[in-house]
Amino acid sequence: MTPEQLRAELARSRQQVADMAAAQEEFLRAVSHDLRAPLRHVTSYGTLVREVLGDLPPEVVQGAEVQEALGFLATMDHSARRMGLMIDGLQALVRASRAPLRLQPVPLADAMAQARATLAPAEAGRAVEWRVGADLPTLWADPTLLQDLLVQLLGNALKFTRSVAHPCITVSADAAPAGQGAFTVQDNGVGFDPARAGSLFGVFQRLHRETEFEGVGTGLALCRALAQRHGAQISATAVLGGGCTVRVQWPVNPAVAADES
Questions:
Q1: Kind and range of the H or E element at 181?
Q2: Is 149 helix (H, G, I), strand (E, B) or coil?
Q3: What is the pLDDT of residues 233-252, one digit of tens each?
Q4: Containing H/E element for 106?
Q5: 148 vs 30, 50, 63, 86, 240, CA distance in Å?
Q6: Residue ranges of the alpha helices (H) in the chain?
Q7: Which pLDDT does position 232 carry in this prediction?
Q8: N or C: which terminus of the chain has fewer CB atoms within 10 Å of its end residue's CB?
Q9: The whole model's pTM is what?
């Protein structure tokens, strides 16, 4: 195959990838939009049914059958609202995959401080020990997208250390190959079963029961999408009951980051 044929084949492959990404984005946008209306109907009509039941005589409302029906309505409402959050997660993934990259040098220490300020309400009333390294790298990144990633990572660390008596979150620089910068976010929270680590960054994948920790399983999938937009890699290790460490390896050279779009 001649160099000209190779270039033509590469161009076709790139166009196919772009077409597939556009089709996926359009599909997710349509699904996210079209599912909103029936969800609104479920939640609004559930409220109306509760009001109708509430207008019944007190002795009827307190009856076993009506109380059972109210329980069904509560479950239905909870599930509908949960599905709404799942749709929100899909939309966030679409935005992350298509948002234009405005790359510039971003001191990771400053970005971490901003993320912590954003998460202040989640930390309120807790004595969380933060250990932030003094040698965090400067990353070539889109400031907004990097901020979204850090809020997700630190938010997870805060969430999964809620049941720990002395929560500690450590952010530190890590060794990386030439042309790369790396950092880790480590907590001493509940961790997870290492055997299930392969599904950690999948969409709607949860490693803990909803009754223990809120969420629909899109946060780490979003982190992966945001990292990949920058040509970065993200991974996690943990011990069940012994905390979690998330490692992010980031290209320092803008030439190896994802193309701007």
A1: strand 180-187
A2: helix
A3: 999 888 888 889 999 999 87
A4: strand 104-107
A5: 24, 38, 49, 17, 27
A6: 3-34, 36-54, 58-61, 64-98, 108-118, 120-123, 143-159, 219-229
A7: 93
A8: N
A9: 0.73
- Residue 230's nearest CA partner among 210, 250, 253, 200 is 250
Q: Quote the CA–CA distance of 41 and 45 in Å, as a whole number.
A: 6
Token pair, residue 150, equals 């850090």
Calculated CA dihedral for residues 74, 76, 81, 85, nearest 10 degrees: 130
Question: How far apart, in whole angstroms, are the C-alpha atoms of residue 218 and residue 225?
Answer: 10
Give the number of other CB atoms < 10 A from CB of residue 163. 10
Residue 24: is it exposed, middle or buried by C-beta count within 10 angstroms (0-12/13-18/19+)? middle
Give how far the C-alpha of residue 244 lies from the chain's centroid of Cα atoms, to the nearest Å: 16
pLDDT digits (tens, 9 = 90+) for 55-75: 888 888 888 888 998 999 998
Q: CA neighbours within 13 Å on the CB side: how many for 98?
A: 17
222 contacts 133 by C-beta, under 8 angstroms:
no
Q: How far is CA 260 from the centre of its chain?
A: 22
What does DSSP say about strands 233-238 and 244-251: parallel, antiparallel, or unpaired? antiparallel
Place of tokens 């790139």: 14
Amino acid code (one letter) for 193: D
CA–chain centroid gap for 113, Å, is 19
Instruction: Give the three-class secondary structure for 127.
Output: coil
The Cα 246–Cα 60 span in angstroms is 54
